[in-house]
Amino acid sequence: MAAQDSCLSLIKYLLFVFNLFFFVLGSLIFCFGIWILVDKTSFVSFVGLSFMPLQIWSKALAVSGVLTMGLALLGCVGALKELRCLLGLYFGMLLLLFVTQITLGILISTQKTLLERKVKDFVLETIQNYHSDPERSAAEESWDYVQFQLRCCGWHSPQDWSRAPSLSNNASEFRLPCSCNNWSATNDSAIPDMASLSQFSRGGPLARPRHSADLCASDPKTRLTYGEGCARSLQKWLHNNLISIVGICLGVGLLELSFMTLSIFLCRNLDHVYDRLARYR
């Protein structure tokens, strides 16, 4: 009996400590989301990224932080106070999350062609309506971030941006989002004409633009513009990072399974503890 009590105590405090860690982590994630909502400028300066989908990140971080905090709080209180109802609810939410992730993985693997077509249509629609629909600003920021990080331009090629009426102010000039510009190839003798002087930082003309909304007058045939489309760049990125992605997914899944096992084991064995306490009364 003493060994069983020691085992239950170990599981209880182990579950408490792990969930306390995730509660603190969820609090930090939530604070980052609120920080972006309150003061975007200081956050951009802190992370050092010029192109970033702040509108989407702020909401995603805030919601993820609240969910993580709520789930971790259930685990902490349920384990520490030995409350079967909270432990059962904690197990049920983890099980729902695990089944949802498995379902999404199956859908992505079986509906790969349909998903690629949906993504392609969404990206091309975003390019065509660039700077023409204020409600699509979040999608535009996200696509600028993808182009900037993957060093690509357009979906198939930079010519995709010729579909955007808002980027063509006359027949002789072809403008692109500054996220398409290859800033590593820029030098003093070949500086692209910028549509807005506000995008230059005090560091000089070699600095990256601060806002994804800035446009650059550029020629897609020159080396100052990324010549590869993002469809191919995305395929390369997924191929190069496939092992890391699978490893992270497996790690998260095993972590969830471990928490579910500990919580249901503790929940089921609390009956024996309560029965022994009742006999001593």
TrEMBL record:
It is a multi-pass membrane protein. PROSITE patterns: TM4_1 (PS00421). Its main location: membrane. The chain crosses the membrane at residues 13-38, 59-80, 86-108, 242-266. It is found in: Membrane. InterPro entries: Tetraspanin/Peripherin (IPR018499), Tetraspanin_animals (IPR000301), Tetraspanin_CS (IPR018503), Tetraspanin_EC2_sf (IPR008952). GO terms for cellular component: plasma membrane. Pfam families: Tetraspanin (PF00335). Keywords: Membrane, Transmembrane, Transmembrane helix. The keyword Transmembrane helix applies. Belongs to the tetraspanin (TM4SF) family. This is Tetraspanin.
